[in-house]
Amino acid sequence: MENQFFAESYMKSFSSFSGADIIADFGGRVFGELQAITYAVQREVAPIYTMGSAEPRSFSRGKRGVSGSLIFIVFDRDALLETLLMNLRDRNRSTTDQTGALEIFNPAAEVGQNPPVYGIRDWNRVMSESSNRHTALDHNTIKYLDQFPPFNITISMANEYGHSSTMRIYGVQIINEGSGMSIDDIVIEKACSFIARGIEHVGYDKIMQELNLDSTERAVQDSIISRDHGPYTGGTEPQDIPI
Q: How would you class 205 by CB atoms within 10 Å of its CB: exposed for 0-12, middle for 13-18, buried for 19 or more?
């Protein structure tokens, strides 16, 4: 009984995760070749000065950027390139028309000896229709990782005590890739750097779930107090907390 109590109390406490507890999902496919992933969030913050003081009066916040890096172990092929090509091929198949061929828009086909003259509304309509007829990226013509459209990365964590958590990186675009080989290298690694549109931090869904649950419980308690004792004003006025 004592050992069972100790195990249960430990499982309910805070817990952490190591690299052995983590898997990464790239666009719906789990990656076994990923060795490391890093990310950073930067934001422009500029001080504002006015005459009469050498100290900043305030700070102005500007643009935010998300970037990071991926490191892969290379076996007999480029795993990231293969996975993204497979995803792109599957997506292109889903957009194939009934004849089995992707419709390719050729602007030169509409150019003749007497090209049509469009008004501004007709021109906008024709260009909108033509942009919808452009084919998606063809997996047969892609050779570099920076040619792929954005994708999402989901990082899942679970340890032997039953704790789990997730993290997500949205809109990842590869901008640089590099690798190297040497007589002294036991393994071959490949590094990629990326930019992204946003990040959902580790356990964010749990945090929001607990906050919403606490708000619901407080609302239920307030309704019970109001029913039994009249409107609840929350006691005395809130006091300023000394800093």
A: middle
* Torsional sign, CA 202, 68, 70, 184: negative
Ordered DSSP codes for 75-95: SSS-HHHHHHHHHHHHHHHHT
pLDDT given for residue 38 in this prediction = 94
Give Cα 51 to chain centroid, integer Å: 43
Distance CA 165, CA 199 (A): 14
Q: Please name each of the domains of the chain with its CATH number.
A: 17-44+58-95+138-203 (2.30.110), 97-135 (no CATH)
Range 109-112 contact pairs with CB under 8 angstroms and sequence separation of 24 or more: none
Look up residue 204 and give its two tokens.
Answer: 């964010």
pLDDT given at position 9 = 57
User: What is the rounded distance in angstroms from the CA atom of residue 195 to the CA atom of residue 215?
Assistant: 36
Closest CA relative to residue 151, chosen from 161, 137, 164, 140: 137
Question: What averages of pLDDT result for each successive group of 10 residues across the chain (243 residues)?
Answer: 54 76 86 90 94 93 94 88 80 55 36 52 64 56 84 90 89 92 91 93 85 67 56 46 43
- What is the predicted pLDDT for the residue at 191? 93
Exposure string over 181-204, b if 16+ CB within 10 A, otherwise e: eeeeeeeebbebebebeebeeeee
